[in-house]
Specification:
86 residues, alpha+beta, Arc Repressor Mutant, subunit A, 3-stranded antiparallel β-sheet, 47% helix, globular
Length: 86
C-alpha cells in the first residue's frame, strides 16, 4: 500500500499565546491532540518542544503548566542593556 503523509508547520509562539489567552493554567496532551486534530503522541512532541522553549513547564507525564511570563533567552543580561542595543 502507498503511504501518504502531510507535513504541517505549527508556530509554537502563536500556540503559546493562544494557550495564555485561554486563561488555562494547565493543559493536557489529549486536549491539544483534540484541538489540533493530531495524535496524542504528536501533541506530546509539540508540548515537549514548547517546554524546551520555555513556554510550558512539564508537570507530569501528560500535563503541562502554562508559563505566563515571557521566556528569557538572554539570561544574565538585563532588559535595559538589550533595549539600549536595539
Amino acid at each position: 500500500m502507498a503511504r501518504y503523509t502531510v507535513n504541517v508547520t505549527i508556530d509554537l509562539r502563536l500556540l503559546a499565546i493562544k494557550l495564555r489567552e485561554s486563561g488555562k493554567r494547565f493543559v493536557k496532551v489529549h486536549e491539544i491532540a483534540y484541538d489540533l486534530a493530531v495524535s496524542p503522541r504528536t501533541a506530546g512532541k509539540i508540548l515537549n518542544s514548547m517546554a524546551r522553549l520555555g513556554y510550558l513547564i512539564k508537570w507530569s507525564d501528560s500535563v503541562y503548566m502554562v508559563v505566563y511570563e515571557k521566556p528569557r533567552r538572554n539570561i544574565g543580561i538585563s532588559d535595559d542593556v538589550i533595549a539600549r542595543n536595539l
